[in-house]
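Progress report, Aim 2. The chain analyzed during this reporting quarter is listed below.
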Amino acid sequence: MCHYCGCRHIPLIRDYIAEHERVMDFAEDAVRAFEQSDLEKARRCVQEMAAGLDSHWLGEENGLFEVMRREELFADYIAPLVEEHRELAALLATVDVGDHDDQERIRVAVAELREHISKEEDGLFPASLTAMSGRDWDEAMAAWHEAHPGVELMSD
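Predicted structure tokens for the chain:
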């Protein structure tokens, strides 16, 4: 986890990172619940994970991703990230937490999500500092607000 470029001080990026952390907490709790055969807890965790990712991805894809993919270099980096969003969304929508194969699919997905988050936090987010203008940030923040109705960015 990088702390050198300062992107974590940008409210929008800071909130995306906080959303990543909340989702990963639910994901890891779901995996632990599988290990403890607590399927009800696993189900709740997977549902919370999916709900958190829905708004997160909507804001990210319609905001930061949309702005940054206007440059070809970033478009090539972002396209696989969006595909990974779609794949995980499909899994979370259909997973049966009582099925051992699906439990394994979730375990694998959690590991892949950790790597996905690293691609954003250690690659795309720092790049946004130099790639985006003030107008771009305004557009990205507007998309976040649309994806999170009634919620404000965290204050310091």
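The chain has one domain: 8-147. Residues 8-147 form one domain. These observations will guide the mutagenesis work planned for the next reporting period.
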